[in-house]
Amino acid sequence: EDKVVQSPLSLVVHEGDTVTLNCSYEVTNFRSLLWYKQEKKAPTFLFMLTSSGIEKKSGRLSSILDKKELFSILNITATQTGDSAVYLCAVRINTDKLIFGTGTRLQVFP
Amino acid sequence: DGGITQSPKYLFRKEGQNVTLSCEQNLNHDAMYWYRQDPGQGLRLIYYSQIVNDFQKGDIAEGYSVSREKKESFPLTVTSAQKNPTAFYLCASSNRRGNGEAFFGQGTRLTVV
């Protein structure tokens, strides 16, 4: 059975801290791994990763994929209260099936 | 503007009734998805469709049905067989070419009363 597991489930930090969110997967016929941020309703796209070892970066957020060890991490440096959200990891397989993990709830306090 | 439209935003249903959630996209995407999200949880896949007139069950398809008669539309019916239908439902679509990201609608919150 295809599955995506995220850890931790919940994280509470203070502004300025750096956080690392984890996503591991076990799927057949991997195509890509995607990260989303969900604040209220619709998840918004952050990154898509297809190749190992190539870091994707956007401002204070960065992500990398390890296809040998079957995991990805999402780093957020110098966290702000606006980073508070649920971060979702998803894996796409070659039948177009898109499988999500349980999410990590991040709370950033001033 | 291009995007995905879900309707209604809020829906109340009496026990034993079927109800249909609408999802329309004008992004010319081939693949469409339905997910269910319960409080404090991630997204669980109900059904997905790669192409018109074809769809596959996801992990929690029991009590749900879908159709894909048009490329733009992927309605979800929550039947009376679904034991615990109260949840937040999200529809998404993506381009099959490459590894394109999935775009989401704003969701429908279904409450059984």
Offer a few descriptive terms.
heterodimer; A: mainly beta; 5-stranded antiparallel β-sheet; 11 strands; globular; B: 113 residues; mainly beta; 4-stranded antiparallel β-sheet
Structure, described:
The complex is a heterodimer of chains A (110) and B (113). Chain A contains no helices and eleven strands. Chain A is mainly beta and 110 residues long. With 113 residues, chain B is an all-beta fold. In chain B, the strands form two sheets. In chain B, strands 2, 4, 5, 6, 9, 10 and 11 form a seven-stranded mixed beta sheet that branches. Chain B has a four-stranded antiparallel beta sheet with strand order 1-3-8-7, with no helix packed on it. In chain B, strand 4 (31-37) and strand 5 form a beta hairpin. In chain B, 38% of the residues are buried. Chain A binds chain B through residues 6, 31-32, 34, 41-45, 48, 50, 88, 90, 92, 95-103, 105, and chain B through 31, 33, 35, 40-45, 48, 50, 56, 58, 88, 90, 92, 94, 96, 99-107.
